[in-house]
Design goal:
Number of helices of chain A: 13
Number of domains of chain A: 2
Largest sheet of chain A: 5 strands, mixed
Structural class of chain A: alpha/beta
Number of strands of chain A: 13
Oligomer: homodimer
CATH architecture of the largest domain in chain A: 3-Layer(aba) Sandwich
Order of helices and strands of chain A: EHEHEHHEHEHEHEHEHEHHEEHHEE
């Protein structure tokens, strides 16, 4: 079937972006453009939204240098989307629209770069395409800073945010330590991870154990007990003169209520959203009166390509390349995975897993990785995390700033006359 | 006078630390240890507090490798202090105690590494020493991330925080841009600078003008007008799909009230301190309903040695070295300065200025550096700032993390029997 071997490929980014999702894009695109069995490579502008609205970018119109530069450019160069397709029963029209667009542009390969929601979408697209007589090879490309995808040892995007958080914690802790005698005694850093504490755990790499900062990590996996926490803070300040706390945005009370939703109100009585760090800092101030500071890294942490992990960049590229290789080998409805062969020395290889096994599942930090007191990481966790932040992969600089890629984003001529309303 | 040429030297860090204050320490210490005219080099543990309590560190007992590593280590390796000596009239005892300790340890050279308060202290020490018959050469070493010292083109510490803020703004802006169609439309980053907007201004380097992020900078120098701000946010989201805002912690209403003191209260009605970013973000949400995110970089920005400016590191070292050279040349009660000879290509040299000219003064961002609409920087400001963030000076890494120096901190044997209560 010579026609199908010369179909086009479609790539889209999905969900929250990362420092290395464009490295995966680079892996997909470079590999696809090199293949004689793929005609053109398109990307969705703003992810799957671009497919639904027939807003496709002709990736082949970008220079080779720009495409290469994606490897060192953070965030989503083609645009990503927080847009979860509904279940097929609720909204079959969305899936049929995707197939309509894919058919119009002769897209035989669909590479979807995202988290577990996206793997679910990719699976359904492959099923509906087949049902509608337009079979598409759908391969997921794993991406999530939260590191919560199952069946892969780690997720591209996580290693870099882990490195950022570990480095920043080490640096801020030195700051606090040097000032504690006459100034700030408690520092609180809030990090991402609403459901899983992997990013918070990574802060633990900054120190060597309970006596080194971060002295306290608050995981989503460990119900927050204010009394026990406040006692630990006091003990820490007494013993060391200061206390560095890393709190996950997902840290919650035993009843499941997030610390960040502590009922804070502004001057007008409106609920004030967000910020586990100020809540924790305030709690410490009211109980102990210590001078405090707090930081919320927010997007800074997941966009920080300037301090990306080299291992993470390599893995992000590798899963992108592997996705295309799998598709070309005729393997459908799978996601490439990172398989750890050994921790020391660190050795990994690419595997793959059916999309159905990944979809809509979450991998939390296991009890064996959390210290018995609930406030730190174990040696096993350290062995797991350490290789993931190894190596630096600095972007090139121009006038003191990272020289990140900007795509031209040449649109593919529309073929459909129908509009799609989001 | 052969004795005085073989006196000891004393170095202390003062006030908020920076990514490069230890590079200045390295410049002072390496230069002093090489001089045949200085016997021993001591540092105050926790800054001037170490002098008052006779808690001195024998710097000569550190390895040469550790001392060299100070050049790439953030924060205050010997400890710093927020401890302002009172005026001589109010508390002459503190100054006399300093002279007592300096006399006991035959300290003929005092190097004080800090901001304008510290320059005032150094000046008074030199005056009182002379009055008490124990003359001391007092040389200030400029340091402040706020860049608000007068008579020097820039302050060591500023270039690195400026680079951090510019890089982080560029990265986070890419993140927001790539998600804006279906997710966050407004991102607010809070940066330091309670009285001067230099750090906020540096964020302006991330983009090329009003149409590129950061779209809005809120300076302490420009009174905050909510209506005008909110209109600009809406115009920006309409034109670009998103809006990146950088707010200085010192941004204030026309009546001088800080945005951060907006009367926010927690669930118990207690005043909640801090955070101009959440206040601004909330304001945008209530007016326009846009989805938002906010970040507060806090200590992360001033401790971020991993992304220090090479120019800043070099200047920090140079002012430390120059301080010792000035002292050895018999120049008293001065502070080395950075003198800009040209912006493009960037050329600078070391000058010096009397301590009395620096003490207790603040240099704000001048009107010529703030765009007419008050929301951005001018071309003149860009020409001033750009050279200061030039070049990278990466620390060495070990296991994925910066390998920062830890001093042994061998104490100098006490000579006084009197205690000093802080």
């Amino acid at each position: 079937m010579s026609k199908s071997t010369r179909q086009n490929a479609f790539y889209a980014q999905s969900g929250g972006v990362s420092a290395v999702i464009n490295a995966s894009a680079c892996g997909v695109i470079e590999t696809a453009l090199r293949s004689k069995r793929i005609r053109r490579v398109y990307a969705g502008r703003d992810g799957i939204v671009g497919a639904l609205t027939e807003d496709l970018i002709d990736v082949g119109r970008e220079s080779r240098a720009t495409l290469r530069a994606l490897k060192h450019t953070p965030a989503g160069a083609f645009g990503s989307a927080r847009f979860k397709l509904k279940g097929i029963e609720q909204n079959r029209a969305e899936y049929e629209r995707l197939i309509e667009v894919f058919r119009a542009h002769d897209i035989g390969h669909f590479f979807y770069n995202g988290g577990n929601d996206s793997m679910d979408t990719a699976l359904k697209v492959s099923q509906i395409g087949a049902a509608l007589g337009f079979p598409i090879t759908c391969v997921g490309v794993p991406k999530t800073v939260d590191n919560d995808l199952p069946h892969t040892d780690c997720c591209p995007g996580f290693g870099s945010v882990a490195k950022y958080v570990a480095v920043s914690t080490r640096e801020a802790a030195l700051d606090v330590a040097s000032m504690a005698r006459t100034s700030t005694k408690v520092f609180v850093l809030e990090v991402m991870g609403r459901h899983a504490g992997w990013i918070a755990a990574a802060a633990g790499l900054a120190g060597g154990g309970p006596d080194e900062p971060p002295h306290i990590i608050l995981f989503p996996e460990v119900p927050f007990e204010p009394q026990r926490f406040l006692e630990r803070v006091r003990a820490c300040v007494t013993a060391h003169g200061y206390c560095v706390i890393v709190v996950s945005e997902g840290a919650a009370y035993p009843d499941g209520k997030f610390l960040a939703d502590a009922g804070t109100r502004d001057a007008f009585g409106h609920t004030q959203l967000g910020g586990a760090a100020p809540v924790v800092a305030n709690m410490v101030r009211e109980a102990h009166g210590y001078k405090y500071h707090w930081a919320v890294a927010d997007y800074l942490q997941r966009a920080a390509r300037h301090i990306a992990s080299r291992v993470d960049v390599e893995q992000a590229y590798a899963v992108g390349r592997a996705a295309v290789q799998l598709a070309l080998a005729g393997v459908n409805a799978v996601m490439p995975t990172i398989v750890r062969r050994s921790s020391s020395p660190y050795r990994w290889q690419i595997g793959h897993v059916p999309l159905g096994a990944v979809a809509n599942q979450e991998k939390k930090v296991p009890p064996a990785y959390i210290r018995e007191d609930g406030f730190g990481i174990t040696a096993a966790c350290r062995r797991y995390l350490e290789p993931l932040i190894a190596g630096e992969a600095y972007p090139p600089y121009r006038k003191g700033l990272p020289d990140y890629a900007h795509i031209k984003g040449v649109p593919v001529r529309r073929k459909l006359t129908t509009e799609f309303k989001l």
